[in-house]
From TrEMBL:
It catalyses: a quinone + NADH + 5 H(+)(in) = a quinol + NAD(+) + 4 H(+)(out). The lineage of its organism: Archaea, Methanobacteriati, Methanobacteriota, Stenosarchaea group, Halobacteria. GO terms for cellular component: plasma membrane. PANTHER family: NADH DEHYDROGENASE [UBIQUINONE] IRON-SULFUR PROTEIN 2, MITOCHONDRIAL, NADH-UBIQUINONE OXIDOREDUCTASE 49 KDA SUBUNIT. This is NADH-quinone oxidoreductase subunit C/D.
């Protein structure tokens, strides 16, 4: 640990002083010591002062976005790391490190400060074993309550059989029967596969026909992605896995999240030509994701499969055809590499560009059809306007991002606010709606397709005229990457569903010591009870559809 800031930390200066110095003065005696984290100052605090520190940073320094909570077990301690940002300026970041004793890993909960800490801390308890004092509902979230051990702890025995006593299979509702005079009813929605969202179980309590409470039961698709990445090498073995988080349409966006974090960690500069290709491919994935979101939303709301869903799949297939030409795959692309992309655009280039331009030329008419069939549909409007309300301040407290947050008036998009790739050199707009309802989230996605088309067209113009001798697709990256020991970085990109972030701690080897995935769907799904309470069951289904979650990314 060092008391000095890293030379390469991108920290805004305030009156000649770094952000870290300003925050150190603000936090005063709460700070035990300072750490060097790439792109953000890090402060080590006591486990019983978490709320005091986070309230100070939120209310006095403006850090209103708890982006991620990372937990890990070290040789001599457990650690919780709270990654804080500002919705107004996400380039201002700070990491709050909370070490706890190895024999008694107990830390104060952050849930009263940021509501999103509820699920994040439950995941940390479930997988690592840290307990959060004062947490409103500290129990497992991805694994069954009967699970023994914590899979990301050092002493976890992977081959140990899970022996569950017969009493554990007792009726989970036997103590929940309504007493005399009660009007509530318990309703299981799932676990099934609703449209294409994934395997989800909603434990719903009804008061008459209205939703009194709903709890999302997740974990059915948990595939240990973080542990798999911790066992893979930076250069070659991790990149194929991000495609499988949001497996349905966001492959290149997922790959970019890992690439951005690892390239910062290894100080790799991506060639400008490769950045343009990445930007074009990412926006094609965004259109594919939004087409599926719009089609399945209509399917959820009024069951229209024949027209609207197939219209959306028709246009999604066009983007997938282009992506297949570019990457060789339709879903699991594995196209990005650290330092660039795996190969150049397909030949003949003129035909590839013409195919993209034909798609972009047809897109305005297709979007007009969607507005006629969906946003202008009276049935859908009745079901979505004024339902699933998520106020702006509530969205921020839950760490909501992407179309879910922008549909609630949160003007936050990492492509513009924390620029990467080639976005800052292009002309496009961030789409924001302030209706805070299911309808607003639909409009955001439809309008974002138009903005993605603008970005793609500008990328094609640039690539068409790019000199052949300057078409460098990859930086010169060492065959084996071994970042310095105990270097920590958190980096994020604007995925189709929101902020997709990666935390990496290096341990001096060619594999990460800790690899944490910040899923936008995980935080967005947490808002469902806020949107559904007091609504009717069909409104609950519409709210779930408007979140556009994929459970493969929620569970990871």
């Amino acid at each position: 640990m060092s008391l000095e800031e890293p030379e390469d930390a991108e920290q805004p200066a305030v009156e000649g002083r770094s952000l870290g110095d300003e925050l150190a003065d603000l936090l005063g005696d709460h700070v035990l010591t300072r750490e060097e984290h790439l792109n953000a100052p890090g402060f080590v605090i006591r486990p019983d002062e978490v709320q005091d520190v986070l309230f100070t940073l939120r209310d006095e320094a403006g850090f209103d976005h708890l982006s991620c909570v990372t937990a890990e077990e070290r040789e001599d301690r457990y650690e919780s790391i709270y990654h804080l940002k500002k919705y107004d300026d996400p380039t201002q970041e700070v990491s709050i490190v909370v070490p706890t004793d190895k024999t008694n890993p107990v830390s104060q909960t952050a849930e009263p400060v940021y509501r999103t800490a509820d699920w994040h801390e439950r995941e940390a308890y479930d997988l690592v074993g840290i307990e959060y004092e004062g947490h409103p509902d500290l129990r497992r979230i991805l694994l069954p309550e009967t699970w023994q051990g914590h899979p990301l702890s050092m002493d976890y025995e992977q081959d140990r059989p899970q022996l569950v006593p017969l009493r554990e299979h007792a009726n989970p509702l036997q103590d929940d029967h309504t007493g005399e005079g009660g009007d509530t009813m318990f309703l299981n929605i799932g676990p099934h596969h609703p449209a294409t969202h994934g395997v989800l179980h909603l434990k719903t309590t009804l008061d008459g026909e209205q939703v009194a409470d709903v709890e999302s039961d997740i974990g059915y698709l948990h595939r240990c992605e973080e542990q798999i990445c911790q066992q893979g090498t930076y250069r070659h073995q991790i990149m194929p896995y991000p495609d499988r988080w949001d497996y349905i349409s966001a492959g290149l966006l997922n790959e970019w999240a890992y690439a951005r974090a690892a390239e910062d960690l290894a100080d790799i500069e991506v060639p400008e030509y490769a950045q343009i290709i990445r930007t074009m491919g990412a926006e094609l994935c965004r259109i594919a994701a939004h087409m599926l979101a719009v089609g399945t939303f209509a399917l959820d709301v009024y069951g229209d499969f024949t027209a609207i869903f197939m219209y959306a799949i028709r246009d999604r297939e066009k983007t997938q055809n282009i992506l297949e030409d570019l990457t060789g795959q339709r879903l699991m692309f594995n196209y990005f590499r650290l330092g660039g992309v795996v190969w150049d655009l397909p030949e003949p280039r003129e035909e590839f560009f013409e195919k993209i331009r034909d798609f972009l030329d047809d897109l305005p008419q297709a979007l007009e059809e969607y507005h006629d069939l969906i946003s202008g549909n009276e049935i859908l409007q009745m079901r979505t306007v004024g339902t699933g309300i998520l106020p702006e301040d509530v969205a921020k407290s839950y760490g909501a991002t992407g179309p879910v947050a922008r549909g609630s008036g949160v003007d936050y998009d990492l492509r513009r606010d924390d620029p990467y790739g080639y976005y800052e050199n292009l002309d496009w707009d961030v789409v924001v709606e302030d209706g805070c309802d299911n309808y607003s989230r639909l409009l955001v996605r439809l309008r974002e397709v138009e903005e993605s088309a603008k970005i793609i067209e500008q990328c094609v113009d640039l690539l068409e005229d790019w000199p052949e001798e300057d078409r460098t697709i990859q930086a010169n990256v060492p065959r084996t990457l071994k970042p310095d020991d105990d270097t920590e970085v958190y980096r994020a990109v604007e995925g189709a569903k929101g902020e997709l972030g990666i935390y990496i701690r290096s341990d001096g080897t060619d594999k990460p010591g800790r690899f944490k995935i910040r899923s936008p769907c995980f935080s967005n799904l947490q808002t469902l009870p806020e949107m559904a309470q007091g609504e009717y069951v069909p409104d609950l289904i519409a709210a779930l559809g408007s979140l556009d979650i994929v459970l493969g990314e929620v569970d990871r």
